[in-house]
Amino acid sequence: MKILLLTAPMVQINTPYPATAYLKGFLDQTFPSGEVVSVQEDPALELVLRLFSKEGLARIQKAMPKHLVSVNPELQFFMEAFSDYQSTINDAVRFLQGTAEELTKAIANRDLLPEGPRFVPLQSKGPLLDQFSSLSESDRAQHVASLYLDDLADYIRIGCDHRFEFSRYGEKLAASAPSFDPMLKELKRDPSVVDEILEELTLELLEKHQPDAVALSVPFSGTVYGALRMGKAIRKKQIPVLMGGGYCNTELRRLEDQRVFDFVDFISLDDGERPLLCLLEHLKGERPKQNLFRTYYRENGKVIYQTGSEKDVPFPETGTPTYQGLPVKKYIKMFEMLNPVTRLWSGYFWNKLTLAHGCYWRKCSFCDVNLDYIGRYEAEKAVSLANKMDKIHSETGSTGFHFVDEAAPPAILKALSEELVRRGRSYQWWGNIRFDKSFTPELTGLLKKAGCIAVTGGLEVASPRVLSLINKGVTVEQVARVAKAFHDAGIFVHAYLMYGFPTQTMQETVDSLEVVRQLFSHSCMQSGFWHRFSATIHSPVGRNPSQFGILLRDPPRPKHGRFAENDLLFDDPSGVDHDALGEGLRRALYNYMHGEGLETDIRDWFPIRVPKATIPANLIANALRSPASK
């Protein structure tokens, strides 16, 4: 039996999304004799490569309605500069793939590529132009080529397909969508040029591999529309379509709308190894539908969900991800924003690896702790992890690793670092952490020696009362000491920040910004991002809203049955204008990341009147001098 593993578009184009690599590694290990043969491809990358080519741009130009072009300045510019775009597109893509270094100087000097609306900030004096000018020649070239592709993506979205973006496709149709109606309406429309190309490459993949079944991974809401488009084309060929992934795990846990199964045959939840084995047995006639594991299907016009009695494959037994079959040399490394963490995510090729299943803390009240991917914690041995890194490196040739854990456990990082140092490896790696007190200066020094270049971690809300509500398990002072230990070891620190948590007052939000200002002033962090709080149905806040002082709003019940469900609507009695505060928080953080405005009164960042911070001006300085920092 042959199964084709695909990640639906769109996902990041700088590196493969790892779901199919994990499943293929597991299947190869489980069926060494070839009873089940698995192959994998990356339709998201292939879709981009076809769109962003001479032939693709010609199809885009032809598909743009004249009435839209006549009223839109951006599309008019595209049409006027079309010959320049078409003559340079292949070179720009090759450069971002790393195979046209000879173009570096011309691109960096802005002598080669046409410049559309995305270049406006670089066309006049200001902080962005200054920052751009300070980059190395190769970095300037990568940024220019990335903005060039961003312009083209904008033209496609405006003129051909409003659903298209580089890392998502039709995202709003699927995100917490109680009704399937909007998605179905779009799927029934005449195909756009993007849809046409996606169907063409889907049929080519079927012809190339002749699979007995196709498994589609849908990690995010921005991959669902593409998956269903592909599923429709695959089912016309009488090939069973299996679907799973992060989106299904979080948003389809109460699926009732049977119309989804016009596009796919089965939808599985949570870790995919055991459900996939059961489905393969079913497709071979060895297991009835009634004995499937955590899987939906349609029967007699109704959605059936089988929980099954099997157990998940233990994490250490799931095998090593394999990138065999993926075009690792063709990925496009983007440097779109002059932000070091944004570049970390999108500007390099990363081998993906998970150190442990789930989260070792799994207590945060805003997090999906009730779901398996967070709540079931299983660790892996350091020697096995180092072996996996060696194997993946031998396949891809890349020495860069991104550990994709919810929060990498300090004990595992310590043991793995010791093993990598013992082996004399020169890998570079980064990942998400908690600001755990175990990250002492001694440990961060070891991590640096073993190749750690950056960490991202959740500070969330820099307010003692709200941190207690969040149940983060850290204090502001502890975060400061741990972050400073990473910085002093030469490891880049990015913090996730949150605002709008239930009952969070304006004063607490302002105080949080003051803490962030002090953290930047004392070199505890170099980057950050403010997220607006959202209540999810699988979090402690969503399960027990009254405990957090909020009232949930019931959405109208869909006519045809429930589709997706994740983010919850709620009323916060605080009455705070979080939108206005968010604007000020982002302005301040942008300047802090560029070393600007650290002496500015924090009230000046906000578009509305806010109170003076009540945080002591020496809070972080005192924390760094405390005995706990030694």
Description:
The protein has 630 residues and is an alpha/beta fold. The protein is 42% helix and 13% strand. It contains 26 helices and 21 strands. A hairpin with a 2-residue loop joins β8 and β9. α18 crosses α19, α19 crosses α20 and α23 runs parallel beside α25. It starts with a strand and ends in a 5-residue tail after the last helix. The model has no long low-confidence stretch (mean pLDDT 95).
Radius of gyration: 25 Å
Average per-residue pLDDT, rounded, comes to 95
Distance between the termini: 59 Å
Outline the biggest β-sheet.
Answer: 7 strands, mixed
Short characterization:
With 630 residues, this protein is of the alpha/beta class. Strands 2-1-5-6-7-8-9 form a seven-stranded mixed sheet, sandwiched between helices. Strands 10-13-14-15-16-17 form a six-stranded parallel sheet.
Task: Give the key terms.
26 helices, alpha/beta, seven-stranded mixed β-sheet, single chain, 630 residues
Helix and strand arrangement:
Layout: E1 2-7, H1 19-30, E2 37-41, H2 43-51, H3 54-63, H4 66-71, H5 73-80, H6 82-96, H7 104-108, H8 127-133, H9 137-159, E3 164-165, E4 168-169, H10 171-174, H11 181-188, H12 193-209, E5 213-217, H13 224-235, E6 241-244, H14 246-251, E7 266-268, H15 273-283, E8 295-299, E9 302-306, H16 340-346, E10 351-353, E11 356-357, H17 372-375, E12 378-379, H18 382-396, E13 400-403, H19 410-423, E14 428-433, H20 441-449, E15 452-460, H21 464-470, H22 476-488, E16 492-499, H23 506-521, E17 527-532, E18 535-536, H24 540-543, E19 551-552, E20 567-568, E21 570-571, H25 578-593, H26 619-625
Helix pairs in contact: 2-12, 3-6, 6-9, 12-13, 18-19, 19-20, 22-26, 23-25
